[in-house]
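Reviewers of the previous submission asked for a worked example of the structure-prediction workflow described in the proposal, so we include one complete record here. The input consisted solely of the amino acid sequence. No template or homolog information was supplied to the procedure at any stage.
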Amino acid sequence: MSLTWWSIEVRDGETPARQWRDAWSESLLEAAVTHGARDFIWQAEPFGVVLELGFAETGDWDRFRHLPAVVAAIDAVDPTALYVYPGRGGSAGAGLPRRTPRPIVEDAAPLPVSPAPLLVAMLS
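From that input alone, the workflow returned the following structure tokens.
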């Protein structure tokens, strides 16, 4: 079964993120499970907490997101410390590999290339 994952990330701010999790975890998980979440996980990160929710149906997230309990939990977070996005969060890593960095200045000189070392065989 393929799940569509969503993340609610709360960073430490005026109120520690773990305190927000303790206050709202039960309400959020009950709402998630009763509205189509098939899997969930709380992650504690150095910057705060992440709630990852996996839904089987695409419309389940929208219904969950607009429930009064979920709106209240999200409204309880300082907007500058809240991130809600599709996909798994926290330390899940990027979905695409990093690109090779380009020089900041267009007229920058290329880095010098060292010549390949010469291999010398000694015969005895």
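The mean pLDDT is 84. We consider this example representative of the routine output the project will generate in years two and three.
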